[in-house]
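Final report, section 2: Outcomes. Of the targets proposed, N-acetyl-1-D-myo-inositol-2-amino-2-deoxy-alpha-D-glucopyranoside deacetylase is the one most frequently requested by collaborating groups, and we therefore present its record in full.
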Amino acid sequence: MLGAVTADRRLLLVHAHPDDESSQTSATMARYLADGAQVTLVTCTLGELGEILVPEWAHYTPTELGQHRLGEIGDAMNIIGVTDHLFLGGAGRYHDSGMTTDDKGRAAVPAEMPANAFWNADLLEAADLLVEVIRDRRPQVLITYDPHGNYGHPDHIQAHRVAMYATVLAASPSHRPELGAPWEISRVLWNSHNTAMWREAYQIAKDRGIELWPDNERDPDSFGPDPSQVVAVIETGPYLDICRRALANYRSQVDTSQPFWQFFQIVQELPGAGEAYMLGFGRPFPVSDGPASDLFEGLD
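The predicted structure is given below as tokens.
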């Protein structure tokens, strides 16, 4: 057994790199911790190939950056309050795959990557590592990326594949019984941009003279899914200070003075803004007039 089930509501999040959890789901984690839920975060790599933004750290090798980001995610977990955090297969089992861009500026798989890159991981092997966690923690709700990895990062796509495969395998009584008793996750959610809020914030940023993509005007519809696909939103407002401190803690990756992060802060400040989710698998939310405000709604 890896751990112990300690709460009636149990949430499992699967992210690719350190900082992904703080930029995309920090309010969600903080909210459910405050509610007394069990919150487990699984990170798949150390983020060894992230872009280094601090000049005095520019000399770091990928190994050194990975070790530095270990400290950053540890500090972020303390800020958010997460005490159940683990790396898939142990810290360093899978290496950051890196990312390149194609001729249209879209995220793409690099031509070369480390031998143990997460993108090259055996899917069954990686999924079984997560199956053991699922059967031990027994979450009712699992959060990960959509099939495109939200914006195409190879490790985000792979995290999606591993999480979805593990969800199915963990529920099968015949699959690897030595990994624990079968457990069926009730609802898998894909974290997403809150498209309507991003559209509104984009216009505000332009009005303030913040140049996000000076060479390429963005289509507002490209910010995320059709708003009709968003089934739940966890408001950022009550946890805004926690969210900002956790993200700013990642100094190697995040410079909050840069235009994109100024834009991101505008998004967070909009009335009703929050972390948005699509239904990826499992039990739908009860019918309502808008997105649910509780990820466990209808499961009790």
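The chain has one domain: 10-282.
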